[in-house]
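Progress report, Aim 2. The chain analyzed during this reporting quarter is listed below.
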Amino acid sequence: MREEARAGRTDVIRNLRPRRWDAISAAVVVLLVVPELGPRHGGVTEAAFDVAFAIPLLWRSRWPFPVFLVTAAIAFVQWLVGVRVLGDVALLVALYTVASREETGPVLAAAAILEVGVILALTRWFHDAHIRSFVGLTGLVAAAAVLGRNVRNRRRLLESLQERAARLELERDQQGKLAAAAERARIARELHDVVAHNLTVMIALSDGAAYSLPEAPDQAREALDTASHTGREALAEMRRLLGVLRAQDEASAPDRDPQPGVPQIDALVEQVRAAGLPVSYRVSPGARALPEGIQLALYRIVQEALTNTLKHAGLSATAEVELIASDSDVRVSVIDTGTRPPTTPAGMNGNGGSGLRGMRERAAVYGGVVDAGPRPQGGWLVAARLPLSSPVQAQERG
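Predicted structure tokens for the chain:
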């Protein structure tokens, strides 16, 4: 509401400024002709022409060319009557207004009309100095037109600069909104991975505890303790991510915990093993020295793949995680021996599902690809390849 009120006041001021200058110009013309209004210098006819020249100038900003035509008509009547007055300066003011506000056609027409008036005035009142008077009066006409044109060009330049500044401000706001949307999408992927994985682990542990409680209460208690620990970790991770969402800027943002990476995959594998899924894990030494962004993407891909294995592979399944980094790329594969139902599990199909889509989006940021599908010998395969020479990685290293 305040912005609208301020904009309304600005529009009112802009509308008042031309009218104010119109009144000032009319007043200046009247002041110039004050000496002619006395009984020694002129009579009623001269005064009437002077006032007639000044009055149309009150509307010169609203109707520049019509006002010029009115003043030119008054000047022609003055020429017919044969009266010389200082109010003729109104013609120059009107020409200046046309030049500063109209297109080229009306400006040339107004200048031509005024030049004809100069010639008519020379033939009637300047018999002894035609050339000198012609040059002087023509110079005044040209000066009024050039000055008005320069003012018009300057006004257009200012308007273009203001428009450009407004456009740049709009683009900046749009870029800020796009960046905020991208950040929210990234955090949404993080939340999906955290919630899906940890809830899956907690459900598996709880089911295992329920089955073993009558015969092995100690194992059941250990499973419940692990489920409780997993839940606390998930809650802490969600609080961190939601804290980032609530932060308005970097100054007010909470301290961020380190993002998980390749070293944390060991704990992830142990967590899945505790949930009842045997997992073997092999990693090359170079993978632990990758950029943080690459490591986070690899961690989330492995996390999502193991989560889906827990959900869909069955009780007798096993899994194998392999992470190999070379000089040109890094490859990660998650293979399980489980059996899938006839329909492809949601989240792991080729085109839909937030799980596989999230993995592909993470890999695409670094120019990588993710393939997922059933293996000919049985089980399921998730394989990702991320090149180590993309612009994003070069930025992270720099």
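The chain has eleven helices and five strands. The longest strand covers residues 329-336. These observations will guide the mutagenesis work planned for the next reporting period.
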